[in-house]
Amino acid sequence: MSLPALLDIVLVVALVLLGLSALLVVVRLLRGPSGLDRLIALDVLVAEFLCGIVVYAALTGDSSLVPVVVAISLVGFLGSTTVARFVRRGTGR
Amino acid sequence: MSIGTAVTVAQPPPDPDGTLGVVLDAVGTVSIVLGVVLTLVASVGLLSLPDVLSRMHAATKPQVVGLLLVVLGGALHLRTSVDVWMLVLVGAFQLITAPVTAHVVGRLAHRGEGVRGDLLHVDELVDSPDEADPGPDDAETDGD
Description:
Chain A: GO terms for molecular function: sodium:proton antiporter activity. By secondary structure, chain A is mainly α. Chain A contains 3 helices and no strands.
C-alpha cells in the first residue's frame, strides 16, 4: 500500500475517533447536572466540530470549508460567554 | 509563515505531489492523530471527572492543545498561503478565547455549586466572599 493511501486511512480513523469523543461529550451534555456542565460540554462539542471540519479538509484537500472554521471559532466563543452570563441566574444566587 | 515559504521554495512547478509533499502530508497526519487523541482524552475527562472545575480543566487544556495540533496538521496538508493563515487565525482565536470562557465559567462555578470543597487543597477565594466582589455583572448592571 502506498503511503498517501495509508495516510488517508489514518485520517478516516481520526474522523471516527472524533465522532466517538463527540458522542462522549453529548452524554455529558444530556446528563448535566448543572447548566455550567452543559455549557462546557457545548464548548467542547463546537471545538470537536471544528476539528472534524479541519480533518475533512485535510482528507479531501478541499479548502472551501476553512473560512467556516474561522467563523465558528469566533461565534462559539461569543455564544458560550453570553450563555455564561445567563447561567448565573439559574444557580440560585 | 515558514511552512508556506518552504513549500514555494522547494516545490518546482511540475512536482505538485513530490517527496516533500508526501513528507508534509505524513507529518500533518501524525499531528492530526495526536490532536484527535488529545480531544478524546478531553472528552473522557469531561465525562468522568467529578465537578465543574475539574471538568473545565479537561475541557480547556487538552481540548485547546488538541485543536491546535489538528489545525497545524490541516495547515500542513492544505499548504496554500490563504488556508495556512486562516488556520493560524483559528489557533490564535482559540488561544485568546479559551481562557476567557474558562475564567467566566470558573468564577460562576465558585459562586454556585460547581466546586466540591472536599476535593480542594486550597480555596483562595474562600477568604473573600463573593458578595464582596460581585464581579463584572453586579446588581446595578444586571437588573435582578
